[in-house]
Amino acid sequence: MKASRVAVIGGGIGGLTAAGLLAKEGHAVTLFEGGPSLGGKAQAVTVEGLTLDTGPTLLTLPALVRSTFEQLGALDLLPPFTELEPQCTYHFADGCGFTAYKDLERMAESAAELRPIERKGVHSFYAEAAAIWRAAGEPYLEAPFEGMAGFMARVARRGIGAMLAGMKLDTLHTLAAKHFQTHHLRQYVGRFATYAGGSPYASSAAFALIPHIEHAYGVHHVRGGIGALVEALGQAVRRLGVTVHLETRARFERVSGGYRVDPAGEVFDSVVVNADPLASLRRESEPLSLSGFVLLLEAEGRPAVPHHAVMFGGDYRKEFDELFAGQLAADPTVYVCNPSATDPGMAPLGRTGLFVMVNAPAMPLEEGRAEQARRDWESSAERVREQMFEKLMRHYPALKGRVRVVGQRSPVDLAARGAPGGSIYGFLPHGRFGPFRRPRIRGGTPGLFFAGGGTHPGGGVPLVMLSGRFAAQLASAHLREGV
């Protein structure tokens, strides 16, 4: 194939993947990143020897990640993974608990402690989640989404049963209520809608493919954190000859012969944009997915906090009603990640680093309202911190008097990194067909493509990596055949 010039705008995981694969094909690739470091939302910080991710904190679909590094000729750079078992500990407002395991029988035993009938519910729910994966998940991830016709053709190859299963999907909450009697396990299932920044009461039951993926392929920790994976990806693309410009906010416009990219002032044959696509597609008026507020904590010693834990609020429906009304939750669900429980090297001896997060509403995009929202966070942050500490200390009393804040991230910080309104995933995939309205990888003009969590197939490290693979695939076809 004739070598062409490709600009990649944005150095998140999707952009890095696309850049590396295009460079491996022999194209001259230049990557422009507006921030001081690569990774996009997948950032990590080191504070006084503590290393903590500030974005994604876990990895699923490890084979997809390994195969991407293999395509890049960079398996030697890939950090090792550790599969977690148990996967996550759940605490509920009434004092009950539940533990998710990859081992389905162990998970069923934990569920039966809530109510014996829930043992059966675990098996029936995961059987239906596996069917949803086969009927909708595999076809959705098999190729770039270019329209319903191509997607339905991939579904049809799996039989009429798959097509009928897809037509029957309701909300994720409805699916959870079908299989589980207790609100505890309905909350557990509903939480997976937040992986896309949505509400379980409005998101498609198709999101049940996420707990299926965690059960079937495991939940993994990357040694050194997701930040170590980003570092390895950055090394891989540089080794392939990608020219990387940091702290360079690039703009592009369609011109004769391709795309002019400034401030380089050069014309490229194709552009891959690793940034939220809604504004570029003039869809910025659409509702946004959730944002989040994160505390980074240092704890003395090595308290018995699991690698992943979730502490639910008492009224899940009210929590999402508040969030999507633009309000902070009165009783928020709190997530905590303790990476040194698995990877002691992420914290010095005798210390522990904790990532603690609550969901938050995205901020408005209109400048006047956005400025007011930024000011509001200055006063809201203290109240949210108090809520997070109260819940953390209630469930893990060994932390009392042993914790200090070493950093925080609010929707204001996410917005400063380019996330619209601080929304983590941008597009909000509510509704039965919500995932199919997600912005496509192919842009509106020839040679323009998108990558990242805001486009197909969605958020999370492996899916963002897959978006980069799809973007490179489509860009290669365009450069080769003009399509």
From TrEMBL:
Q: NCBIfam families annotated for this entry?
A: crtI_fam (TIGR02734)
> Which keywords appear in this protein's UniProt record, sorted alphabetically?
Carotenoid biosynthesis, Oxidoreductase
One function term, GO molecular function aspect = oxidoreductase activity
What region holds the Amine oxidase domain? 13-474
Record flagged with keyword tRNA-binding: no
| PANTHER family (UniProt xref) | 4,4'-DIAPONEUROSPORENE OXYGENASE, PHYTOENE DESATURASE
The pathway to which it is assigned is: Carotenoid biosynthesis
Q: Which GO terms describe its biological process?
A: carotenoid biosynthetic process
Could you confirm whether the keyword Oxidoreductase appears in this record? yes
- SUPFAM superfamilies annotated for this entry? FAD/NAD(P)-binding domain
Q: What is this protein called?
A: Phytoene desaturase
- Family that this chain belongs to: Belongs to the carotenoid/retinoid oxidoreductase family.
Gene3D superfamilies the record matches:
FAD/NAD(P)-binding domain
